[in-house]
Fold each of these.
Amino acid sequence: MIVIGICGGIGTGKTTIANICKKSGYPIFYSDAAVAKAYEQPSIISAVAKIAPQSIIGGAISKESLSATAVKDPAFLPK
């Protein structure tokens, strides 16, 4: 099986290409949707709370806060 990744900035046509592929019968995996679903899992919320407690807001993971933490502190990310 061949796997193709579609990447690019905002407004570059990723969704358009994905929709064309989907209409042509190719399976599509939407990583954004998978990550959003994962961020709802209690085990993931708990793991994030241990390493970045400031990123848990109202019992949910704040992607914005988690991203800011990672950008602000390069040591936060594993090598």
Amino acid sequence: MTDLDGLLKMDGYNDAILGKCVRFNTEFILYDLDKVILLLQRDGMTKQDAEEYWEFNMLGAWMGDQTPAFFSSGNKCEG
């Protein structure tokens, strides 16, 4: 896997990392949204609760230029 040292990571979601993205002079981590939702469900949330939690607490959290991004293989844009 690409070297991700020094990049902002979400604790407990390493299994959902797809890799590193580069935007202009910034690097950030790309997560598989479907896996993130599955990990939240594994922790006891319903699918709807997991999606709402992700949208508010992960997608909605801006932590600067290294804020992680999310990829969904579905046809529908999330968030």
Amino acid sequence: MKDEYYKVVGAFFKEKRTAKGVSVNDSAIAVGHAKTWYYDVETGKCRIFLKDTIALCEYFNTDLNELQKYIEKYYYNKK
């Protein structure tokens, strides 16, 4: 079930990236990572550290509260 959690987190950031109209590469560079790392975050293939989560939230003009609400809606309510 943990893998599903990270897929939900990744989906949140993918939605934010799409809404902002930026590429995977641009998003990765903005937070100091490689394109492959960011792609793995979006697809839920890697666990993301809190500092990186905060950096992505800042880049996408959102916050941890909005992420938590998204997780509650799409992860916890589907169990």
Amino acid sequence: MQKKDAGAVLQILYTAMQNAGQDPHTQLLCYLLSEDPVYLPQNAALRALAAEVPPRTLLAHLLHVYFADRTEGETQDAR
């Protein structure tokens, strides 16, 4: 089984949570902090997908994207 990109897994989980009527921000935050799959949609395929990327890797990806965007904005402001 090929490992998924952290960003792709987050997007799939986020969309699935929205479609299920859940608050994806709260659900993902709780999952990332607790590493407990109870916060993921009750779908075996989604939980298997999430298991391919450790929660700490997902969190690291979010931080990387957040700070990359912030740094990029600061670079543009300096021009």
